[in-house]
């Protein structure tokens, strides 16, 4: 399986993303802040950057991203908005949004190791898509782990998104509705990605 080992802070800077979006508790550096503004970016360059931004945030590779876009096109509504909903409803992202991991990369690894249950059943596929009404919870024996105690303590003040009903005492969350673009904590021009794939 291909793994993205790219330095997070360096990539965040090149794509213009705040490190906080990636779960990294580090401020943006002001050094060479005009680096990306020197060159005039073509229309294709802007479209490509938006695609790379989404792929990097969710840790998705090209083939999987293309497949998600094709699914988004077949769904009702706008393809760009559907793509964001599909990415946000991935199990690894939901775990991160619940505050049960520090970053999406860590969430992915913890899901693969089988620490989470969806509707009482163990799911170890990071790309598993949750649906409205699903209940995601931490396994009982994982709750006793020192690692999870540290994660829960560190994320105690982190606010959960409005589309999730999070119970911090039981480490469970219920999906109240499907996520939409307004729920995001970063800026994305999803219409540019649609234009890129429509060529």
Share of residues in strands: 5-15%
| Count of individual beta strands | 5
What strand order characterises the main sheet? 2-1-3-5-4
Roughly how much helix do the residues carry, as a percent range? Answer: 40-55%
Poorly predicted runs of 5 or more residues? none
Order of helices and strands: HHHHHHEEEHHEEH
Cα separation of the termini? 29 Å
Structural class: alpha+beta
What's the tally of helices? 9
> What overall geometry do the principal axes of the alpha carbons give?
globular
Largest sheet: 5 strands, antiparallel
Task: Report Rg.
Answer: 17 Å
Mean pLDDT level: 85
Explained architecture:
A 5-stranded antiparallel sheet has the order 2-1-3-5-4. The protein is of the alpha+beta class and 199 residues long. The chain has helices spanning 8-15, 43-58, 62-74, 79-88, 91-98, 104-112, 140-143, 146-154, 190-198, and strands at residues 116-118, 121-122, 135-138, 164-167, 172-175. Strand 1 (116-118) and strand 2 (121-122) form a beta hairpin.
Keywords:
199 residues; alpha+beta; five-stranded antiparallel sheet; 5 strands; 43% helix; 9% strand
Give the helix/strand layout.
Blueprint: H1 8-15, H2 43-58, H3 62-74, H4 79-88, H5 91-98, H6 104-112, E1 116-118, E2 121-122, E3 135-138, H7 140-143, H8 146-154, E4 164-167, E5 172-175, H9 190-198
Antiparallel strand pairs: 1-2, 1-3, 3-5, 4-5
Helix pairs in contact: 2-9, 3-4, 4-9, 5-6
